[in-house]
Amino acid sequence: MAKQYDVLFRLLLLGDSGVGKTCLLCRFTDNEFHPSHISTIGVDFKMKTLMIDGIKVRIQIWDTAGQERYQTITKQYYRRAQGIFLVYDITSERSFQHIMKWASDVDEYAPDKVQKILIGNKSDEEHKRQVATEQGTKVSGGYFMQYYATLSAFSQRSYPYCLQINGGKNGRTRKNLLFSLPLTLCMCFQLN
Ligand SMILES: Nc1nc2c(ncn2[C@@H]2O[C@H](COP(=O)(O)OP(=O)(O)OP(=O)(O)O)[C@@H](O)[C@H]2O)c(=O)[nH]1
């Protein structure tokens, strides 16, 4: 039987309820958008397998509930994550203010070397924007996050796997693949 994958990455989505974590995940895995908000209960996950430079990469993305009452459950998933997306909604100042709290939970419960990526979602709602891009840049720098992107789960246009991982097949190590992958994942969403 063919090997199902060469490497597995476990990624986690965190952020307040309603910022669009589930929608980002559905856009990434199924290229779908759900206009209604059905709150995640506890945790859920989806998987996607990508071929990146001849390597079969399985990405397992855990979608967590933003609601406070599930946080005892969701924190149990932090320690196995290799990458964490901290998501806020650009039209909600409050969701952005809470990023500091999510980031300090990550510091407390996730592995030290976890990749952290800040995502400002709902960039299609520019007219309702409450959080300037510069504020995102400042916070991501302050919390040692690797990347910062504004995205839209609503937007259909995507750039699937357009980022190539540097290094030839033989010279590539798992370590640099791991480092590069979260950015690849970001690039799979609509970047603008
Ligand atoms: N305009 C717009 N709406 C979005 C976008 N992403 C999500 N939404 C809407 O925001 C609402 C909440 O989205 P969800 O993905 O369910 O939010 P969540 O963060 O998973 O929420 P919890 O499961 O409660 O933590 C839904 O009504 C979505 O349709 C986006 O990029 N643009």
From TrEMBL:
Record GO terms (molecular function): G protein activity; GTP binding; metal ion binding
GO cellular component: plasma membrane
Catalytic activity: GTP + H2O = GDP + phosphate + H(+)
Keywords on record: Cell membrane, GTP-binding, Hydrolase, Lipoprotein, Magnesium, Membrane, Metal-binding, Methylation, Nucleotide-binding, Prenylation, Protein transport, Transport
Xref: PROSITE patterns: RAB (PS51419), RAS (PS51421)
Bilayer topology annotation: Lipid-anchor
InterPro entries referenced in this protein's UniProt entry, alphabetically: P-loop_NTPase, Small_GTP-bd, Small_GTPase, Small_GTPase_Rab
Keyword Cytoplasm assigned: no
Known function: The small GTPases Rab are key regulators of intracellular membrane trafficking, from the formation of transport vesicles to their fusion with membranes. Rabs cycle between an inactive GDP-bound form and an active GTP-bound form that is able to recruit to membranes different sets of downstream effectors directly responsible for vesicle formation, movement, tethering and fusion. RAB15 may act in concert with RAB3A in regulating aspects of synaptic vesicle membrane flow within the nerve terminal.
UniProt xrefs under Pfam families: Ras
Main location: membrane
Quaternary state and interactors: The GTP bound form of RAB15 interacts with REP15. Interacts (GTP-bound form) with MICAL1, MICAL3, MICALCL, EHBP1 and EHBP1L1.
GO biological process, one term: protein transport
Record protein name field: Ras-related protein Rab-15
Cofactor field: Mg(2+)
Location within or outside the cell: Cell membrane
Domain of life, source organism: Eukaryota
Family, per entry: Belongs to the small GTPase superfamily. Rab family.
EC number(s) on file: 3.6.5.2
Top-tier EC class: hydrolase
SMART domains: RAB (SM00175), RAN (SM00176), RAS (SM00173), RHO (SM00174)
